[in-house]
Amino acid sequence: MEVKETTDQFYQEEEKQYSYLNLGPTHPATHGIFQNVLKMDGEVIIDATPTIGYIHRAFEKLAERRPFYQITPITDRLNYCSAPINNIGWHMTVEKLLKVEIPKRVQYLRVIIMELARITDHLICNAVIGVDTGALTGFVYMFQQRELVYEIYEEICGARLTSNVGRIGGFERDFSAKAWEKIDRFLKEFPVVLKEFESLLKRNRIFIDRTVGVGGITAEKALNYSFSGPNLRAAGVDYDVRVALPYSSYQDFDFIIPIGKNGDVYDRFMVRQEEMWQSLKIIRQAIDKLPEGPFHADVPDFYLPPKEEVYNNMEALIYHFKIVMGETDVPKGEVYHAVEGGNGELGFYLISDGGRTPFRLHFRRPCFIFYQAYPEMIKGSMLSDAILTMSSMNVIAGELDS
Amino acid sequence: MDVEQQDKILGVLGEKYGDQVLHAGMVYDFFTVTLKKDKIVEIIRELYHHPAMQFQYLTTLCGIHYPELEQIAIMYQLHNLHTNVRVRLKIYLPVASPTVPTLTPVFASANWMERETYDFYGVIFEGHPNLKRILNVDEMIIFPMRKEYPLEDQVRQDKNDSMFGR
Amino acid sequence: METGSRKVQIAEKPAGIEGAGFFATSLEKVVGLARKNSIWPLPFATSCCGIEFMATMGAHYDLARFGSERLSFSPRQADLLMVMGTIAKKMGPVLRQVYEQMAEPRWVLSVGACASSGGIFDTYSVLQGIDRIIPVDVYVPGCPPRPEQIIDGIIKIQHLVESESLRRRDSDEYKTMLNTYGIE
Q1: Quick check: C89 and B151 CB within 8 A?
Q2: CB contact (8 A) between residue C123 and residue B159
Q3: Do both A173 and A47 map to the same domain?
Q4: Do A117 and A6 fall into the same domain?
Q5: What is the Cα–Cα distance from B133 to B136, expressed in whole angstroms?
Q6: How far apart are CA A279 and CA A117, in angstroms?
Q7: Tens digit of pLDDT for each residue in A140-176?
Q8: In whole angstroms, what is the distance from residue C139 CA to residue B155 CA?
């Protein structure tokens, strides 16, 4: 009897202290929709309960219904800020299943596109970190540079954001002269603007005060939470899929992996900045060393033949029909391929049972995995630090819920 | 992965858990070991702590439904970042009562991955701190990724199924 | 179109009676003109279309020149609800609540294929179009629509705003239309 009363009173006293703040699904535009209910003692956060799934579009079930080419638009919408990386990663997974040899030129062109996509992803993240600390100008500058990259994508594949780039085996067409012109213009103009943006924030007293020591995570905890990508590298672990398990000729290029020390917001910002510089270096090396050769592999079962042949050649017509209707058979197998996405190790686990659609396709989405650590990263910090931590982790809602 | 490395892993597993290994081999470029479901958490803990193994990174965890076998498989992928070795473990659970102990004491990242597998397939992870639905609506009663459930929402009115070959 | 010089066009004045120091026209026209050039949008950005919206707000395709300089994230102070991106069934009640909190007159712009009709996601978890739960004024198709298309949608909203009667929101027709959605 007495025990019950004291616990009741203790419960009432404890509940009186804390307030619950709903950092609801609708944030001011930039971050994406996920909800956090924060238990707060004044301004300090005691605990957080995240809720996700507000944009669950059932990609994995949808993929079981679609032939391989129709899955590429779905992969676009995973991390939509750097869509070409997802597309090329998916095509590489299917190429692994089919055991296709990819020509060197295709691999170098893929590297150029993937590094451009990585630059655009890090651009948005760093610009948004700036916006959340109050520096709105950087955002406008960075989006202007994104327009230049959108024009490059349009020359190559026709679309701006959700690019659906390439085919299984290579590209639809070789890069036109206009595309090279635009890439050269980007490589000339972008470093100047990047340097200007960096100088706005890198040694800015207000920015450093707001970001150093905020939202940090140790390397051991980060590994236990299966972090990958810039968030893990900011904590001090140099794991990069491009170096550990090289794909698409990344071993031919000379670049460093930047790592941080404390894993806090400032380290994440600087790691992404440095990665953008390294990506520019890789693109220049790829353009200098670009070999001649075909722009696609010889895989007639999956690569749409050019239109002149379709109209004149019976065989090409049959292949075209079979590929578009998705009637090509695939070998049975179970394959996993990972690429370094903008946020970390983006993996595709494909089980094929020989039919026209996958038996099971699972996306290893880095955002979903490292967002689990968010409540632990913000315990004991203040509300504005929590907002900053969330934006510095670069959580993209499309990748969070599949 | 070369044969020496594969034998090393099988040797470590054979020390205490030899009877749990059902099948092992290279599937494309990944070393896959199929195990019985009873001691999977101890096996993973052994692979975590053993000095020659040190698989201390959980890459991913997912469920797979095999309707003909009437089983749901769980696939774990572990990675040793220092020696750059990866291994895949698969266990098979009966569809009627898919239960398996949780991996959260070993890897903190298994928390949400197991919740997602529960949400999609209905696999119960014993000992999980918070086994609730994560991506779908909380009120949902079916487990949508199982093969018997359709992809489309059956109560929508505006899409004409006969025109889309469904 | 004049050849040679390009005149900057300020908003045309409506038809009315002019005299020394006064200008008389109907109230509707003046209010419509003022409203259409100062719409405050509420960007309800959920996915990829949200990134194209951010590009529309950027310096290249400037949305601010149409009067939408100030984005309002509070529904109480917004005129236009721009729904950009996929709305899942879990998100439906949230969208409905945001719509109900907006004060009259309010317009809804559905940007992208997912918001208009479910888009490429014909699945069990995606709401097949936001017009299942709230009334929509203009649909902008595309996946994602180019910024020029989004601006075209805003211009169509501007036409609606300009030509709307002042009594429309109190009329029975409007109320019955809201009742079909279950909104009082």
Answers
A1: no
A2: no
A3: no
A4: no
A5: 6
A6: 10
A7: 888 888 999 999 999 998 899 998 898 998 898 899 9
A8: 23
User: Beta partners for A36?
Assistant: A23, A50
In the predicted model, is pLDDT for residue A6 greater than 90? no
Q: Which of B51, B95, B53, B47 is nearest to B74 (CA)?
A: B95
CB contact, 8 Å: B49 with chain C?
Answer: no
End-to-end CA distance of chain C: 48
Neighbours of chain C (3+ CB pairs under 8 A): A, B
- The CATH number given to B3-152 is 3.30.460.80
- Looking at the structure, do residues A223 and A175 belong to the same domain, yes or no? yes
Which residue is it, tokens 């994560």? B134
DSSP state of A296: B
Q: Do B145 and A351 touch (CB under 8 A)?
A: no
Domain extent at residue C58: 40-162
Instruction: Say whether the peptide bond before residue C144 is cis (omega within 30 degrees of 0).
Output: yes
Chains that touch B (3 or more CB pairs under 8 A): A, C
Describe the crossing of helices B3-17 and B40-49 by its angle, rounded to 10 degrees: 120
Tokens of A322: 């079979």
Chain A residue with the nearest C-alpha to that of B73:
A360
Q: Which two tokens mark A283? A: 């693109």
- Any residues with CB less than 8 A from the CB of B131 and at least 6 apart, and which? B114, B115, B118, B124, B125
Predicted complex: ipTM over 0.90: yes
Query: What is the distance between the alpha carbons of residues A306 and C145, in angstroms, rounded to a whole number?
Result: 28
Cα A250-B87-B90 angle, rounded to 5 deg: 130
% of chain C at pLDDT higher than 90: 59
B30 at interface of A, judged by CB pairs closer than 8 A: yes
**Full-model pTM:** 0.92
Residues A186 and A287: their CA atoms lie apart, in Å, by: 13
